[in-house]
């Protein structure tokens, strides 16, 4: 006697078991994807120790884009480095 383990559930038992299996493996895949994406960084992530709003970096980017000339760049860089 197997207490209803075989043949007692009908077709719906197989459907429910299939859905649960898909949910389980989908959850495992989602966890793996999140772990891989988190470990390798991605767009918008900055290396450790480099704040995303570093004033000198922003100033250098503006100079590189041509928004400010060299005189203004050097004056602002000196002002940034003099601050307390």
From TrEMBL:
It comes from the Bacteria. Keywords: Membrane, Transmembrane, Transmembrane helix. The chain crosses the membrane at residues 12-36. It comes from Sinomonas atrocyanea. This is SHOCT domain-containing protein. Residues 54-80 form the SHOCT domain. Pfam families: SHOCT. The lineage of its organism: Bacteria, Bacillati, Actinomycetota, Actinomycetes, Micrococcales. InterPro entries: SHOCT.
């Amino acid at each position: 006697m197997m207490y209803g383990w075989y043949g007692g559930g009908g077709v719906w038992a197989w459907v429910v078991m299939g859905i649960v299996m898909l949910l389980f493996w989908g959850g495992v895949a989602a966890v793996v994807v999140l772990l891989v994406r988190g470990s390798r960084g991605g767009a918008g992530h900055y290396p450790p120790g480099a704040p995303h709003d570093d004033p000198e970096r922003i100033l250098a980017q503006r100079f590189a884009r041509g928004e400010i000339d060299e005189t203004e760049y050097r004056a602002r860089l000196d002002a940034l480095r003099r601050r307390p």
